[in-house]
Amino acid sequence: MNISGKILIASEWLQGEGNNFNASNPSNGQQSSETFSNASTAQAQAATLAASQAFDIYSQYSDQKKATFLRTIGIELEKVRSAIVQRATWETALPESRINGELGRTIGQLNMFAQLLEDGDWKRPVIDLAQPDRQPLPKPDIRLTQVPLGPVVVFSASNFPLAFSVAGGDTASALAAGCPVIVKNHNAHPGTSEIVASAIVAAIKQCGIPSGVFSMLHGDGRIIGAGLVTDPKVKAVGFTGSITGGRALYNLAVGRPEPIPFYGELGSTNPVFLLPKSLDANAEEIASSFIGALMMGVGQFCTSPGILIAIKGQSLNRLLASLAEKTPALNAASMLTAGICKSYQQSCLTREAMPSLTKIASGESADSKASQAQVNLFSVDAVDYLKQTELEEEVFGPSTLVVCCEDSDQLLAVAKSLGGHLTAALFSEEADQDLASQLLPVLQQRVGRILFDGYGTGVELSSAMSHGGPYPSSTASQTTSVGTRSIERFIRPVCYQNTPDALLPIELKNANPDSVMRLVNNKWSTDAIS
Amino acid sequence: MNISGKILIASEWLQGEGNNFNASNPSNGQQSSETFSNASTAQAQAATLAASQAFDIYSQYSDQKKATFLRTIGIELEKVRSAIVQRATWETALPESRINGELGRTIGQLNMFAQLLEDGDWKRPVIDLAQPDRQPLPKPDIRLTQVPLGPVVVFSASNFPLAFSVAGGDTASALAAGCPVIVKNHNAHPGTSEIVASAIVAAIKQCGIPSGVFSMLHGDGRIIGAGLVTDPKVKAVGFTGSITGGRALYNLAVGRPEPIPFYGELGSTNPVFLLPKSLDANAEEIASSFIGALMMGVGQFCTSPGILIAIKGQSLNRLLASLAEKTPALNAASMLTAGICKSYQQSCLTREAMPSLTKIASGESADSKASQAQVNLFSVDAVDYLKQTELEEEVFGPSTLVVCCEDSDQLLAVAKSLGGHLTAALFSEEADQDLASQLLPVLQQRVGRILFDGYGTGVELSSAMSHGGPYPSSTASQTTSVGTRSIERFIRPVCYQNTPDALLPIELKNANPDSVMRLVNNKWSTDAIS
């Protein structure tokens, strides 16, 4: 597939007026033959203007029309699967199987939102009927639904070039909500992004969607990214990335004359608690499953297990021995970018130099010309861990810290010391339930997902998923960026009082033609109102 | 009832270590015999520490236990009704009937949240059952519920000394969610607040609630208020007040190392559109009903109609004539505080001096020693209105601007020029529906509630209510501060994956003992899972 290197404004490919750059293959440093062009500030403004004009039309679309659009994007993506796989493996050094799987997930997300729209009750309609005879004052007819916020800026993530990128979860949920999207692309995979954006353009044309509904820009986060976040036409932002970059953009979003919601998923260490009876029974199995989770995407998952917490004793020794035995054989692998690799190596060096940390083992040594990461496992005594808050910070890459506690009280103290994370995992047997039940209320206050006997690395596409958590794992802990509820980031309530039926949105009309589930006079019902 | 003038920390009345102040009666400037004491920064920290300790226990309470607590507060408030009425009328210059009504509303809010807790489905539980045989990977069991955020700071409003104050909507919804509350009291009604807080303390004692669940502090917003908002133990803020004060506190909340949600209801002008056929049919009736709405609480409702928009012609002339005829007889009345009155007078003088504005009429002249407001109605040509954005700003008090448009296009242009407001109203007949249907999508983007043939001044307590809107009417347009949905400001999602049934929160257990409505495998159901 031909890559133009252009930017996309309102479904038109244009030469960017900013600097040029090349894509590169992290596994060998090779530069792309094509040159990509960054957007200028004026071009970014043209994209938001087009989005804001398109919003007036697109926000009024029926759920069915938006669902068809989302499904069509999925079909168009499937058509260019081989081009995406070829380009994405080159740009990210991720294996074919992973890219194929991630493309399936991306299409699955689009279809999941299409299904949500077809089911029809995502706006959570509520109807309180009038009581004209109520004393001392008549009660009006009141009906509640949701409307889209307006144009949304989506910042692509480096670590999921498809599922959290151009046509990823943020884009899908915003489009489903009725919001136009401007993607600020991640320059770690610009060619992949162009192919994906072309599929969206094809769907826009097929479905007759206003062209301003989608734009995709290359550009520096500090210039084009900041410009988009502070543009008055933009009404919300989705972001996945580093704490430093995310917080800087968050500050801009909330510092605007009109502050807007900034949905940033920033960083998480995903503590894993190995409770005593489970560790007794499964030390070796846990070592194996842990390594499997750690190695996913070269440790570059936001849900990668960064801290294991266990109580000292023979079973923990078995676990450590098993890790020490298995780790040296773990392959070094290329990371997503040379910059990410450098930063990972620096973090490992810092940990190597800390006197309180013990190296458990390292994997195969890394070829730094290939931006490879070497696996590095460390352990620390809980007493020392509790004194060094920086040990809780995420190391982006395949490194984990085992925190060794004296007893269950100290394990609880470690839990209580935690800040915000996306997930916490517990390995537990039935005989551990007493300790588990003490841990749960502590973890509940600190994470967005609690899972048993597994790792957070698999983030299911589900109506029951929560992918988010207290700061810094998310800048908006009350929302999720995965699963159907993520659509709620891009809508807000509007209440209609004493409104003629003819003027009500379809989900609030008496007839309820789509048989949507509604709360009517505080009872759930799919019935029409007679 | 004896007023001590003390502050309340974790159910204990203490002498504040800050400055002293007296309450005053705005209608005559009389100072209270009692002296009130402001909290010191250390005392504010003691309150948040107690709240954070109490949170560990209170957040785990059953819905039934919290419901009983809320109902008990209501019962205790009813017991001190006469003391509240006596004190609040003295402190606010609002009439007895209003205070009696507002106390009823306040108790109604507490009972509404108790009922919500008893109904049990406010946590919106979702269950996606496991599919162990799914290919290529088994699907885990995933269940979603909500947990409370932590200690909440509530800033009392001046204009609703009960319903948006110590035991008002923010407090009731936070307590219902499972969050301890620290009230930063408004010093316009400190004695009233002490009586109300005593009722909460009585309920805390009766129900055996941890004492740290409630504190109430007097203090300067810029010192104690700012200290509370930036206290790391505080996890959310509810605020009703001015744009200046609210935005300053919002900036502190989002500027913390760990940003927290700030739910500020700041300012709204609540535009009212008088569509042509309705104005033809009802000019005089609209003049009467408008005056009724404007005079509510001396124009000090956040939903007070500040702008009327209509098309020039005979019918608008009839409306203006009717307003000119009725207004001179409208009584001057004392405002909530001398400061509010001064600021109202200043706003009116500014408008008097604007060459583009025409005075329609004024009410009875005001006695400024009694902090009285005189009604002032102005009109402006839409051409001039569209040039002066400051005319959209709220004037807190009984003054309204009539915007006179050439035609329906200009009326739509005025609608499109609007920023964020709490409400918009339309007066319309069936023959106006074409214009109404053009207005609705415009207003939908700009307000939180759209109402027909009435004014926003009545804010129904309902599951279908939305009291909020785009900035500056609210700093969090995706939430409501009135109605059952307001509880959602103080909770966040937590997902449980592969969790043993014994360890799940009750609303997620297979047995579903409370028959809560849940989304199970994407179908609504109150059934148990077998």
From TrEMBL, chains A, B:
InterPro entries: Ald_DH/histidinol_DH (IPR016161), Ald_DH_C (IPR016163), Ald_DH_N (IPR016162), Aldehyde_DH_dom (IPR015590), Aldehyde_DH_Superfamily (IPR050740), ALDH_KGSADH (IPR044151). Keywords: Oxidoreductase. The keyword Oxidoreductase applies. Residues 19-39 are annotated as: Disordered. Transmembrane segments: none annotated. Residues 13-432 form the Aldehyde dehydrogenase domain. Residues 19-34 have a biased composition (Polar residues). One of its GO terms (molecular function) is oxidoreductase activity, acting on the aldehyde or oxo group of donors, NAD or NADP as acceptor. This is 2,5-dioxovalerate dehydrogenase. The lineage of its organism: Bacteria, Pseudomonadati, Pseudomonadota, Gammaproteobacteria, Oceanospirillales.
